[in-house]
Design goal:
By secondary structure, the chain is an alpha/beta fold. Helix content is 16%, strand content 37%. Strand 2, helix 1 and strand 3 form a beta-alpha-beta unit.
Length: 120
Amino acid sequence: MEEIGHGQKTFEYSSTKGIWQRLEGPEDVLAYLEDDNAEGVIAVIRDAGATFLSPIFEDLAGVICTGGTIRSHIGIISREFQIPGVVAAEMTHEPEDGTEIEIDGSGEFGIIRLSDSSER
């Protein structure tokens, strides 16, 4: 599996797979809900105060935030709902929406990888 990023893990969790989906604000969440549900999605956001995820948060497989810290709103909510998360994520590159990825919080840092099926 190719590592494409890392950051602070929001809590200790095992490897979790999901579908990369960039969501920038409430409009994206509403548009996404019109066409699909969030089950199996790993939401990728910039804003660590992302309250706009609340309608779908419990359905997410995980969350990646390119800002914030584990003390940010998204880090706290991730722990509270036990949704695997990586905050302050630094990416070597971003895959396209719909790509299967894996986040892993079993080590010192939260690791973001392309899943094996995405590399083929």
